[in-house]
Amino acid sequence: HGPSEMDPAVTTTVLLVPCVVVITAGLFYLYGMVVGLLSKTSVRNKVVVITDALSGLGKECASVFHKGGARLILCGKSWEKLEGLADDLASASDPTKVSTPPLKKKDHSDSCSESVIAEILECYGCLDILILNTAWFYRICFVLVLRNMLYVSVSGVLPSMISRRTGHLLLVNSIQGKLTVPFRTTYAASKHAVQAFFDCLRAEVEEYGISVSTISHTFISSSARVSGDFTYKCGLAYEAVAEIVKTLSNKRKEVVIAPSLPKVAIYARSFFPNVFFAVMAAGVKNAAAFEKM
């Protein structure tokens, strides 16, 4: 007998797999290039404030925007960690290009405090982009959250942006600002309050050329989050930053970063509220029954 011939299906599979790998890698490479170009065009030479810059998302934002040529102001609660982040950004910079060292501000508030905003305006004379990236844990009363937002927007940033008739306010908020989850009453209330504040603010400042965007997300982490016996796949920080860069570039008003199920739930809440409420109530009953077992 002559040498056996390879099955055509096997041959096709052997040839197809490397092609798929190469194409996928190429798409990711192109995607990274596009995000890089967008970050350079949308933030180059812009004065950008990032609150809670020491979080995973804050650090990723700082890295992308610093490479894009932004004049960064990093706000956080630990001066030593801010110094370390600034050093990391400096060491990762392209030595052939001149970049502005990040300005570091120690800030114990949940947003960027009024005094910090005043210092920034005195130093740079303007503020182009304010990224409000903060957790606002549910233990904080939502009235306190609103008070902090008013301090930042009304007493600090807005007068400068209105006088220049330009600027961008971007809120990174939990999806619970649009979709409630049982047993998260205070947390959901704070998220809804901030979401409503920005929705109103958007309409009020549009005539002055100021953009207001909200990005609602589920979990954002650099790895999977483990809770009890379950492991939840979190959205990666770099994916969220890619959405932030695109939002700054195209000035989208609202973005939701979430798997399909939460997005469907948001639409169900709007168009089929009774069905949504029934499902949520059934989930609470099942949880209570499970705890009794």
UniProtKB/TrEMBL annotation:
Coiled coil: none annotated. GO terms for biological process: intracellular calcium ion homeostasis. Gene3D superfamilies: NAD(P)-binding Rossmann-like Domain (3.40.50.720). Pfam families: adh_short. The keyword Acyltransferase does not apply. GO terms for molecular function: oxidoreductase activity, acting on the CH-OH group of donors, NAD or NADP as acceptor. Keywords: Membrane, NAD, NADP, Oxidoreductase, Signal, Transmembrane, Transmembrane helix. The chain crosses the membrane at residues 15-38. Belongs to the short-chain dehydrogenases/reductases (SDR) family. This is Dehydrogenase/reductase (SDR family) member 7Ca.
